[in-house]
Amino acid sequence: MAFKIIASQCTACGACEFECPTAAIKFKNDTYIIDAKTCTECDGHFDTQQCAAVCPVPKTCVKA
User: Which SUPFAM superfamilies does the UniProt entry name for this protein (predicted)?
Assistant: First the structure.
């Protein structure tokens, strides 16, 4: 399973992009997106999903 970013809630701050250990987050069409093929939910890297942990808007980075 992968995480996704709720585009309508994303402020495009960029915090998530730099925290992703697999570089699955990219800026596209004025918002950030998560590549489901690359996202590992930080498994093997961290105990919590880094995109959700650093996002300033609660429940913007969620399980797909």
Answer: 4Fe-4S ferredoxins (SSF54862)
pLDDT (tens digit per residue) in 9-48: 999 999 999 999 999 999 999 999 999 999 999 999 999 9
- The answer to whether the predicted template modeling score (pTM) of the entire model surpasses 0.85 is yes
DSSP string, 17-32: HHH-TT--EEEETTEE
Other C-beta atoms within 10 Å of 46: how many? Answer: 12
Q: Tell me the C-alpha distance between 18 and 8, whole Å.
A: 21
Find out whether 41 and 49 touch, Cβ atoms under 8 Å.
Answer: yes
Contacts of 13 by beta carbon, 8 Å cutoff, 6+ apart: 56
Residue 26: give its domain's CATH number: 3.30.70.20
